[in-house]
Amino acid sequence: MKLYSYWRSTTSYRVRAALNLKGLSYETVLVDLVAGAQKDPAYITLNPAAAVPTLVLDGGAVLTQSMAILDYIDATWPEPRLIPTDPLDRARVLAVAHSVALDVHPLNNLRVVLALDAKFGATSAQKSAWMQGWMAKGFTAIEAHLAPNTPFVSGDAPNIADLCIVSQMYNADRWKVPLDAFPNLARIAANCMAVPAIMAAHPDNQPDAKEIK
Amino acid sequence: MKLYSYWRSTTSYRVRAALNLKGLSYETVLVDLVAGAQKDPAYITLNPAAAVPTLVLDGGAVLTQSMAILDYIDATWPEPRLIPTDPLDRARVLAVAHSVALDVHPLNNLRVVLALDAKFGATSAQKSAWMQGWMAKGFTAIEAHLAPNTPFVSGDAPNIADLCIVSQMYNADRWKVPLDAFPNLARIAANCMAVPAIMAAHPDNQPDAKEIK
């Protein structure tokens, strides 16, 4: 398999972590989002949204959209389970995962920051306030769904919701979102980063990671 | 079951359509998003994100997040299937559904328009350009995934991707997004609206629909 990935992309981080947790090997193809490599015509034929991640299976099938890719990975290599099989458990875990993937992340990525710049001449402080504001709003809702004493979202092992949380918390750290009000999210992110398969997927551990001041 | 819903909410539309396609009966509880009813403390205890839809099952379980609710509905009442069971078919259908639900809709809803107003004093023309721009960008990517001659995303019956498309196309019409470049999306939306169960879920057919000039 080939995974088209960018180190700081939190959606790539989710998929890297899932592949690692399943013990699957894959080749990483670097897509430099800041340099605009996602707009290369050859890449667009793989992923018409000009986004990462893209997973190309050994048979040649091309998968896009991180949450659809995670669904495929979990259906194809079921151990360890990332999405419960019981419909109600599944709905609860997906609700937390989607609270990150649909309510927080889409408002907090590079293309949106660039659009605020281009369309409204947003200052650096306004961009930070935008990022921090949506994350704080989303985190407040998610925190209310989480139990106070479990290591992960549902018990003792990370699932799809934990992968969404740990990757979004990386972005929260990057944008200096105050986290005092979110002890459950902070605990879950710390526990995820203590899992070697997840830590290996962390942006700082990717071949394209850069030191940014 | 009780569905907390708002007529113009495209995420509510998706869930209404799914419940109707399955032939399930449910009580609709109206949440007036424009009046701020979603911020009522009693509602927040049900849905901490202060969003619609929320589905309360007969046993009392509370489900949030439209895509997680659709997953639950399909797992619990499998006929007609809205999400394929084969992992690769499933990944492809979810990729289209998520292209709407993660890449388009989150940037195109009421709370974002209000934020552009509050933070950047966006004019009416700037707000229209924002809505039209993200929809056109997302639709361009989705159009590339669609086959030119099938009535729906995958063949002869609507699935979860079609439900995401028809509801987003309602919003596109509302914001006057030019659709000439998107014949596949237009055909799919028209075919969806010819299905009585989906048309019954259309915003204009809800009890809280208002005539808006």
Q: Could you characterize the architecture of this molecule?
A:
Two copies of one chain form a homodimer. Chain A has a four-stranded mixed beta sheet, with helices on one face. Chain A has nine helices and four strands. In chain A, helix 1 (10-21) runs parallel beside helix 3, helix 4 runs parallel beside helix 7 and helix 7 crosses helix 8 (183-193). Chain A is globular, with a radius of gyration of 17 Å. Chain A has two domains: 2-80, 3-Layer(aba) Sandwich (Glutaredoxin); 87-199, Glutathione S-transferase Yfyf (Class Pi), Chain A, domain 2, CATH 1.20.1050. The model of chain A has no long low-confidence stretch (mean pLDDT 96). With 213 residues, chain A is an alpha+beta fold. Chain A starts with a strand and ends in a 14-residue tail after the last helix. Chains A and B meet through helix 3, helix 4, helix 5 and helix 6 of A and helix 3, helix 4, helix 5 and helix 6 of B.
